[in-house]
Amino acid sequence: MSAGRVSEGAGWFSWWGFSPARNLLRFGPVKSDGEMNVLLVGSGDPRHILKTIADSPVEQNLHMWVIESSMDVVARQLLLLYVTLMPQEKMGVNEKTEVFLELFGNTEIRSQTEETLRRAASQLILSVTEITEDPINTCLNTTLLKFKERDELARIFKLWIQPAGSSPVIMSKAWDYRVRQHLGTRYNSKKGCFDWDLTMKLHEKGCGVISKQQYVQWRGKGLAFEMREGIYQTTNPTLLSTRKGDKVGIQGYWGDIVSSPYLSFGIESDDKKLLKTQNGQHLSTAQDISSANLQELFRSLSNRRRCLTTSHSDMEAKEAPKLSQQKSLNDLMHLSGVSVTFLPLDSLQKLPQKYKYFHYFNSIYFSASCVHQLDPMMGQIAAPDAVLVVELAKYILDLNKEQEAGFAETVANLALKAGFEPWCEGASDGASDGSNDGVHCVFVQQK
Fold first, then answer.
1. 178-212, pLDDT tens digit by residue?
2. 35 neighbors 57 (Cβ within 8 angstroms)
3. Cα separation, 209 vs 203, whole angstroms
4. Is 300 exposed, middle or buried (0-12, 13-18, 19+ CB in 10 A)?
5. CA distance 333 to 137
């Protein structure tokens, strides 16, 4: 159906993933206690981080390690984690959900959301430019990034603070350019193309909760979440990036324009009432489910904040004078026993060379866009009981069934060369955390 190149719909920057949020520690043999180290390669957004933390016991120590393909994506992840960690007394759950979803999936945002973005960017600039051995907030740990990468983050955050209208890019034109390039000669009948992708692809793949009205609006304008009556006319600068052209970098919107940001939080729910249908129609939309899922995640994380151990509280009390001097991230929630550390962009191939990471990670996650980086060296950083989770191409809509199957075969071959074999005892319930849903492939180390 596509007149454009296969890759164009998915884009060149992973602003969101092509799979729903999952607790990565539920894949494969279930792990219930001890300290867990989870490595995420190219996840694109913090959905798996939030879900894994929220669904894990408070007493479990979780260390999430993140490698991304660009600093633009790292900056977005830091921003979304920042919003997540804002305490309820500063921002209520409903408002937090609205702000998160607007920044996450809308090319244009309300003025109130822009104000929150600017404040967050100002705070994040301080956090990445302060030279400290320990992070001010362990969930926003950038201390292991290279200095040039932290400088790049500061540059990106400063761009977000610029007054509205100062960007040379008009988002509506940047979005329309991508749609025209992707559809080619079919552009004049674009609504029919949008409807085809929704009903014959997403709905056929089990995403019936994505409504036609919302999907067509997102495909046409880039507005996935209109949370309330408001004026959406301010460019969301977090979705702008520079793509390398033949000679110069071209700034614009270079993310997904086909699969949608609904996949991350909006197509699955533990609350079966949200998945009810009447006369074959879903009563709740992907936006409703995204909102409900995020509110539940935010509440779970707030509970983890309140359940600090005595030793943890004592440690925070001792550090209070130091934190009061560094005012960048003081007011955010500190989650008990949780750290999220961002590693340098080129670190994946270097981890096996460092003694610290020898047989270190209990769970390793690769996105579909980064699976080519899965090589035999991964066996050296995987713990003896490690589980490898790889995102498949089910929701990359420009691929046909043969290409999708070929991708899964490539994944299996790469995993085998890295010393992993398919885990065959997974749950068959694709809506929970099973491995037989066509969304992820799960492997364990060869015996």
1. 999 999 999 999 999 999 999 999 999 999 999 99
2. no
3. 8
4. middle
5. 8
